[in-house]
Design goal:
Shape: globular
Number of strands: 4
Helix content: 25-40%
Distance between the termini: 44 Å
Strand order of the largest sheet: 1-2
Number of domains: 1
CATH topology: TIM Barrel
Structural class: alpha+beta
CATH class: Alpha Beta
Largest sheet: 2 strands, parallel
Number of helices: 4
CATH architecture: Alpha-Beta Barrel
Radius of gyration: 17 Å
């Protein structure tokens, strides 16, 4: 980024090889005072939870597009579902991990077929 100017950087967890590169982009921009925003409208709750955690970092100062679970899904695969307040904010759960539980019972109820692939030794 030396010698170049930027008014903001977009970061999608899914496009940056999961969290590692997204965190590196955050840190690089944060150290240089470049604002970052986090996007991710169409993920299921699992991806949405990662985006919400990432967007809570101090360098993410531009409004993102993390939407409520109900915007795209009648029922999401996490408990509780992500909700967006009237002012456009979403609460970041406290505690260890992402703060959401994968709703395995719901996923199982939607599953039509399971195939298990074993690793060769």
């Amino acid at each position: 980024m030396q010698g170049h100017s930027a008014c903001g950087i977009q970061s999608f967890v899914a496009t940056h090889d999961f969290l590692g590169k997204a965190l590196a982009i955050h840190d690089l921009c944060y150290d240089r005072g470049i604002p970052v925003w986090c996007g991710g409208m169409l993920e299921s709750g699992i991806g949405r939870a990662h985006n919400l955690a990432l967007a809570s970092l101090p360098g993410f100062t531009l409004p993102g597009d993390i939407s409520a679970s109900s915007r795209y899904f009648a029922r999401d695969v996490i408990i509780p579902e992500v909700k967006v307040a009237a002012d456009g904010t979403a609460e970041v759960p406290g505690g260890a991990g992402l703060g959401f539980e994968v709703d395995l019972d719901y996923i199982e109820s939607c599953t039509e077929k399971v195939e298990q692939i074993e690793r060769k030794s």
